[in-house]
Amino acid sequence: MLSQNSTGIRASFGPFEFDSSSGELRKHGVKIKLQGQPVEILTLLLSRPGTVVTREELQRRLWPEDTFVDFESSLNAAVKRLRAALSDSPEKPKFVETLARRGYRFIATIEHPILAGSESIAIPAATAPSAEISADAEAGSPVRGNRAKILVLTGVVAIALLAGLSFARVRERLIGRRSASPIHSLAVLPLVNLSGDAEQEYFADGLTEALTTELGKISALRVISRTSAMQYKGTRKKLTEITRELSVDAVVEGTVARSGSHLRITANLVQVSPERHLWAESYESDMGDVLALQGELAQSIATAIQVKITPEEQTLLARTHPVEPEAFQAYLKGQYFFAKFTDQGRRKALDYFQQAIEKDRNLVLAYVGISNVYQILGNLELVLPEVAHPQGKLAIAKALEIDPHSGEAHAALAWRLLYYDWDFAASEKEFKYALELNPNAAATHQGYAKYHAALGQFPESIAEMKRALDLDPLDLNKMSELCRVLFYARRYDDALSQCNAALEIEPNYGEALFLTGDVYAAMGKDLEAHKMYAKAETRWGENPATIAAMGRAFVKSGLRGEAQAWIKSNKKQIESGETPPIYSALLYSDCGRKDEAFTWLEKAYKRRSHYLIFVEVDPAFDSLHGDPRFADLLRRIGLPPELSSPPSLKSPGCGRIYSW
After folding, report:
1. How many CB atoms lie within 10 A of CB 16?
2. CA end-to-end span of the chain, whole Å?
3. Can you say whether residue 490 is alpha, beta or left, with left for phi > 0 and alpha for psi between -120 and 50 degrees?
4. What is the DSSP pairing of strand 250-259 with strand 24-27?
5. 353: which strand partners?
6. pTM for this structure?
7. 3-state secondary structure at position 8
8. Which of 283, 301, 368 is nearest to 334 (CA)?
């Protein structure tokens, strides 16, 4: 027996109780995690117990006709999840039986109705109404005739319910989906924290990033990076304005509520042109299953927008493992502080990532986080590179030992191979594989652009950097990095335009200010370069006395005089090594003092400065080209022999030493 009302099917079988209207499955009264397609499959099987539900019927029920998906893999995965929830086995089924190449059948006995007030329907009972209607119709009684009409209508409604088609679904299939514009791009807007606790913002932000990463694994979809999407946290802008600024077809909105170890996420998919709500769903789980929840949510969104998912992507989205809740919270706090891009934030992030690993030794993302922090600290030489990079290398090796298919881990390894090991071939291999695992990872495209730039492969570098910016259109760092690559390529007018685009958004953005100074200096526009350097130095807190001295020197001797003033003001830091050696090498090269430049380049080499990979393409080092010492340095770094790119019009001036 089944219990069926206007909202769906309710059934009891073995130790289980199921309500299709709420999607809840309980075992001995305890709720079992079951969401999405497995719920649809169980509903259809229970509507026709003992009879075969064909694979074609399931395909029509789960995926509209114009949905592009690997049906076989997706259906098998959904049935596998259903069986896991029921503790069932395909070899010895107790509930769901497989009929090879045909479909599935529900074989358990359905016991009593769950709701006493519900109208019970015996299965099978399809022929009873027609016989009764026929008898009433022949009698010609008005009462019986009305009853016949009611029974006919009831039969029609029952058939629609048993087929799983609501009016909304019929309408959507007939006119909704076919008239909609295809969705090729979307953004996950910051999930709203419903806890009422401002200190829980890190949690909502972290889940926003996790969902963005999961959707990014789908190659047929352009997914905007978290950095750009987070610009709209708390915004009052209309969706039409947001989608126009990000150049996307749709957005995902949602909320996060957490109570102890219990998590509830609601998500809503909205297409803007034409404006309509495509899909909405609520998901509940324990904190330990949060990664599985993100993968399931991403698959549901992909199904709703009818985007093609390859078998490999299906596997990546389905691949998951439980996490220790406290460890995952520590990891999310680490990400929150890492995203602040401050020295204090990075050190707090490192502490939280280490806490996460102490609580869960298999949390891959925490190891990746540790590697990323050490890479930044080493690049900036806030920690000596020869200390920072080996620590990061150990962390990333552990991450890949746990999960050899982690896109984040392979991307982190690619950066490390490029910046510290100077193993260009291995770095390219890792960048390519990381992009296979997540083609929407903007930072990975940026890293691959850096690889190409170091080797003087500028068309490829510019293309990758533009792809990174396409995925993260509001990120000032990526705007500036495209300016830098164009600067390396000696495309100064284009570089200037790109830097100005960043400064239009944030006029005091230090990196863009310095780079603009570099470009002006290379173009021979010394006065404009000096003004940009002075602005940047003020923005980044250079000593006012030093800035004044550099200004006076510029008036007397131009950029070269400004360089000498900076050297004089920072002589103690330079000689002690407090100023990173690569900075000093850049400065002396800019000033035409080759011997001093090579002295500091050698010290930078011994320290494994990451910036040495750009020594061949940075116009600041053009004065060293042709010197045998320069050719020897390129050979030891692993760079190709001197490139045939045209020299800059003029070597940049002193202030640029901080611009990278």
Report:
1. 19
2. 72
3. left
4. unpaired
5. none
6. 0.72
7. strand
8. 368
Pairs from 330-333 (Cβ < 8 Å, separation ≥ 24): 330/355, 330/356, 330/359, 330/366, 331/206, 331/356, 331/363, 331/365, 331/366, 331/369, 332/202, 332/203, 332/205, 332/206, 332/207, 333/202
Residue located via tokens 């990095």: 481
Give counts: helices (H), strands (E), the chain: 29, 15
- Helices assigned H by DSSP within 164-238: 167-171, 177-179, 201-216, 226-229
130-158 confidence digits (pLDDT tens): 333 233 333 333 333 443 343 333 343 33
Domains of the chain in sequence order: 2-121 (1.10.10.10), 128-179 (no CATH), 185-318 (3.40.50.10610), 324-438 (1.25.40.10), 454-660 (1.25.40.10)
* pLDDT tens-digit map of 343-390: 899 999 999 999 999 999 999 999 999 999 999 999 888 888 888 988
Q: Which helix (H) or strand (E) holds 134?
A: helix 128-139
Cβ-contact 627, 594 below 8 angstroms = yes
For residue 7, give both structure tokens: 């909202």
**Residue 418 in contact with residue 464, Cβ under 8 Å?**
no
Residue 648's closest CA among 500, 492, 515, 482? 492
**DSSP symbol at 296:** H
Two structure tokens written together for 638: 């692993």
- Smallest CA-to-CA distance from 223 within 537, 70, 439, 447 is with 439
Give the C-alpha separation, 159 to 471, whole Å: 47
Do the strands 275-286 and 16-19 form a parallel or antiparallel pair, or are they unpaired?
unpaired
**Cα–Cα nearest to 16, from 81, 88, 76, 78:** 88
The residue type of 435 is L
CB 653 within 8 A of CB 586: no
DSSP class of residue 339 equals: T
Tokens describing residue 398: 């552990």
**DSSP tag of 306:** T
pLDDT tens digits along 221-274: 999 999 999 999 988 888 889 999 999 999 999 998 887 778 888 888 998 877
Q: Give me 242's structure tokens.
A: 């947001």
Q: 153 phi and psi, to 5 degrees?
A: -65, -40
CA distances, 401 to each of 291, 362, 363, 367, 595 (Å):
19, 10, 11, 11, 46
Residue closest to 68 by CA, chosen among 266, 232, 303 = 303
- SS3 of 273, please? coil
Q: Provide the 3-class DSSP secondary structure of residue 647.
A: coil
Letter for the amino acid at 114?
Answer: I
Answer yes or no: are the C-beta atoms of 263 and 285 closer than 8 Å: yes
- Residue 394 in tokens: 């150990």
Q: Residue 274, preceding bond cis, omega within 30 degrees?
A: yes
φ and ψ of 505, to 5 deg: -80, -45
Angle at 462 between CA 369 and CA 451, to 5 degrees: 45
Q: Are strands 250-259 and 192-193 parallel, antiparallel or unpaired?
A: parallel
Select from 122, 121, 105, 125 the least CA-distant residue to 50: 105
CB 496 within 8 A of CB 516: yes
Cα radius of gyration (the chain) = 31
